[in-house]
Every structure is written in C-alpha cells, then in structure tokens.
Amino acid sequence: MNHVARADFDRYMTPNYAPAPIVPVRGRGSRLWDRDDREYVDFAGGIAVSALGHAHPALVAALTEQANKLWHVSNLMVTEPALALAKRLTELTFADRVFFCNSGAEANEAALKLARRYAWDKFGSDKNEIVSTTGSFHGRTLFTVATGGQGKYSEGFAPLPGGIRHVPYNDLDAMREVIGPNTCAVIVEPIQGEGGVRPAADGYLAGLRALCDEHNALLIFDEVQTGAGRTGHLYAYMGAEVTPDILTSAKGLGGGFPIGAMLTTDEIAASLVVGTHGSTFGGNPMGCAVGLAALDIIANANTLQGVQQRHDQLISGLRTLNDKYDIFSEIRGQGLLLGCELKAQWAGRSRDLNAAALAHGLLCLVAGPDVLRLAPSLLIDAEDIVEGLKRLDAALADLS
Hints:
This protein is an alpha/beta fold. 38% of the residues lie in helices and 18% in strands.
C-alpha cells in the first residue's frame, strides 16, 4: 500500500474528520510506528478501544483461528462464539440477556429503543420520555445525538427525535424535577468521557437508581467508554455499587475489533420479541471470538489490579509535570480514563497540547477544548508510561 499517502484523505474521503498528519502502519503493545518508521507511545488507545494494546497475541490468535473457520452467517443462525461470549458476559455481570451489535452508538440505540418498548408494553404509550444529562455523549445516530447532551453533535440534523430532556450532570435536584410518571428511562455515563472526563459525584448514581425505582423508570448506564476494565473494575457500576437495568458496552470489549453489546435482565429483554430490533453484522463470529479472548484477559484479577497500579503511576507523573509547568487546574478520572483540565490561561488549547505531544512522539486525546484525555492500554508497561510522560514533558516545555 505504499502508493497511498495522508494527502489522499483530503482527496477521497468525506471531510467529517481531521486526522493527524501521520499514517500508522503497525503497532505492538503500547507503541505505534508510522509510514516513516517513526515510533509513538500510545496514551490514546484508539479512544479507549485498544484495551490490551496493539496486536495482542491472544487476540491475533483468536481472530486468525476464527477467520479460518467462519466469517458470517447472518442472524438467521447463531454461532458458537456469540453464544460463548453472551454466556460469559452474563456470568460476569448483573445481566441475564445480551444483544450484540457493532459499536457503542448501536448499543445505545438498542438500549433506548428497548426502554421505550418495555414501557409501552408494561405501562402504555404515554410513558416514553427519556432523561439525559448535559455534556453527555451517546453516539452519532440521530436518536443518540438527540439523547446526548452536546448540541454541536446534533446541529443541522433537525428535526430530531422528541421526548428527550436534559439536565445538568451530577445534579440530583435537577433530575428530581424532571423525572415523572411519563419517564421511561434515565441514561447516564458513570464518567462523562467526551464531556470532559467528569466522574459521577458520590451518591449521584445511587440517587438516580432511587429516583428510577420511585417512578418505574429504567436506569441505563452507558459504559461504552468506562466498561471493559477501563476504571479498574470490569464495569464501572461494580465500583459504584449501583446496578442499572440496562448497560451498554463496546470500545474495549473487542480490544480493537468492532463489537458492541447491550446487557439487560430477563424481564426487560422480553420486550424485544422477534422482529423488533436487529443488526446484520451484530454477533458476527469474528467479533465475538475476539471479544471473548479480550474479556478473559480483561476480567482477570491481575489485569484489573494492574489498572489501579498504572493509574497511580500516571497520576503521580502528571502531578509532577503540573508542579513544573502549572498548566492543569485538575487531574481527574478513574483507572486509565484520565482528564487533565487546562487552567484558565490555557483555555481552548487542548488541541494545541495534543499536537505538541504528537510532534514529540506521544499519542493523546482531548475531551473538549480544555481537557487533555488519556486512555492507554490496560496493560501498558511501566517503562512506556515513563517514556510517554517524558515526551509529554517535552511537549509542555514547547508550549510554555
């Protein structure tokens, strides 16, 4: 493929992305190499997707074995990998039932549709209102951008699906004012990812659980970004000790291979009778085979304990850098989903910092104009963390 170049993006692809000026060609663990064989330390993890790093041998083996057996049969049949992964997910979580799809947006679409369908079945058509939070992000379908609490993602796509209300995140009083007899569901991220890496305050998720129980509404946890070990728990609800009615998972669940899942209980899942929802590629054998291999590693106690150790190392290093440059007003997050909020004098410059890091061979993320976001592999080596922080130090020196 040497005949292609980064400039071909501007010629042949729709301009809805602004990709970095490099073209990665291979990866191993938490390192990437571009077409010029330049090496990068990866603190971005493909936006919290590459949970086990690049080209993990167990995932490569699972994909290769399945690719030599069976690729696709459609949902007219069920395959062994889908059955095995669904069983494993229910063994490890509160859920009794699993719906497979290809992405987080599709998992959230399924969750929102199920919530309305369940309320329609049990309470009637008037109970259809969904409550979400400002600053939230739930995907790019029309339903999920309407549900998400960031207007920039829905601008220009009206008319949007109705029956959706938004209240400030971490504000139980505001939530209490809008939940009522017609509320069918509340959807929330245990940590707002795209909204700035903002964790739920103490008691917030438990308060939402109580409000939903009071009003016969379903509680949906969007764990697309916080799930699959990202917070140091298999799913963030486990650390919060608050159980949702529906949970969505994707990103790290496939370790880089596209897969999404919606998890729920027997009672709620019963509303998805034959023909009510589907996905052509959902539950495909290759995605499920890789997902099962990834889940076995992620759910291992040593992996989850290692996330906290790596969290501590990163937080310590970031604080040392902040002592040196005085650039971050707050360093927050859980596990290996971290956000560094820029001080007022640096407002709006998260992309500048991200670009400076890239120039020094470090891949990072942003979460809005004021937050540098880090979501590296759950297995990132201590040496890679040290090297990545060294390169971030150089980037901060350039900017300051």
